Amino acid sequence: xxxxxLIARLAxxxxxxxxxxxxxxxALVLNNDSFPTALDxxxxxxxxxxxxxxxxxxxxxxxxxxxxxxVAVLVSIPLGLLxxxxxxxxxxxxxxxxxxxxxxxxxxxxxxxxxxxxxxxxKTLVIFLGVSLPVIYHSFEGAKAVEEKMMxxxxxxxxxxxxxxxxxVLPAALPEILTGCRTxxxxxxxxxxxxxxxxxxxxxxxILFNALxxxxxDTVYAxxxxxxxxxxxxxxxxxxxxxRLVRWSEPQFDIPLSFS
Amino acid sequence: MNRRSVTRDxxxxxxxxxxxxxxxxxxxxxxxxxxxxxxxxxxVFMRMAxxxxxxxxxxxxxxxxxxxxxxxxxxxxxxxxxGLAAAVSPAVNAAVRPIVRVLAPLPKVAxxxxxxxxxxxxxxxxxxxxxxxxxxxxxxxxxxxxxxVEQKLIWSxxxxxxxxxxxxxxVVLPAAAPSILTGCRIxxxxxxxxxxxxxxxxxxxxLGHVLITAARxxxxxxxxxxxxTISLLGLILNGLLQAARSYLLRGxxxx
Lengths: 260, 255
Fold this sequence. Notes:
The complex is a heterodimer. By secondary structure, chain A is mostly helical. Chain A has helices spanning about 1-30, 40-50, 50-85, 85-100, 110-115, 120-145, 150-155, 160-200, 205-215, 215-245. Chain A has one domain (about 35-245): MetI-like (MetI-like fold). Chain B is mainly α. Chain B is built from 10 helices and no strands. The longest helix of chain B has about 40 residues, at about 165-200. The mean pLDDT of chain B is about 85. At the A-B interface, helix 1, helix 4, helix 5, helix 8 and helix 9 of A face helix 1, helix 3, helix 4, helix 5 and helix 6 of B.
């Protein structure tokens, strides 16, 4: 049993290694100049991370992402909870959100750049826009599903409306909210890369696409590995935090039933 | 819910949208922003009406739609197939789950340069990117939908003598349909967004390319038109999927 548990634990790592192995074999078979092997690409990573300017660029990307994500979460959760608890607020914001939903947020970049310049502000704003919608939506759904009886008991015990929102609705909706935040985290990373690619000034996306333009294929693939690893690590860290915060709720990953 | 409260809700919902357009118009009218950078809404919508009737703009829309549908269809077929297989067979599940766990949070846009180098600058790389991005929401919701089918339904079908293969299509697939369609809806919106971004990065046609061309020549009006067009396309396709959903799921208890 311990062996099986160990394998289950290492499964994502094994999957990573497997995918890299497939890449290695495919590159060796295709033997194409623009498709270096996995080993060559990974060998190029230390050179990038060792370069001071590249490191500053990547850290600047991460900083923008953290600020955009943080502000979006701080604004979206209260808004979503209010929408879930009050019909008026919900019908006020719902149509607007429905209209904004299919707009590609990163595509707003060229327009926002005209007003706010190519600096940090416009990129952070685009990340903020990209993250806030899923967080609002999931907080809304979570708050809507809170049991009325708990609200009544809270009211009967003399909690004010604001207190009920913080003490009852927020914890009850937390699993759903965190699902939204997880989606938002991945979206933040995607928006970050895209915005930097459109406003080529600094950041991880800038390194990636400049390398593509200059035909430095090793760097292109190494940056892909770095950005991919960032996504996977952030997601895994968030998942761990989520498990701690909402240990009481039903686990999301159920063991699938089989009927074979 | 009576009709009056519904009317009130709709009116309440129109306020922020109207307010937004009013602020937009106001900023331009009071000269807070130069009209060249921030064209008034009337001008944008006029330009849009003019563009929609021009043949060249319709060509761009068709190019975008083609990539969108090609990528989305691949994602739907693969997502449902893999999701069902993972829910049904423990062996497939053991293999698919860690791979999905690793690939799902990966920002697919970062793969786009690699796809460009491997598949070229034509349709293929964009379709692959759209498919890769839309795949995971569909796959995951199919998997959750199929693995939460009530065991009693499956047992009764087995007791009635249905062979396992038919249980999959007659019991599991219909029971998972609401969840699958929700996944498809998320995948569709993602496809809309991704196809536009891919066209913005490198393309010679499509709506994203129209936006980038306008941005490079500082035609602010022409930048708004493709953005609004792709958002409208997203809304229309979403509405169509919603209609298909209520048709497919007729007879289901509230979904």
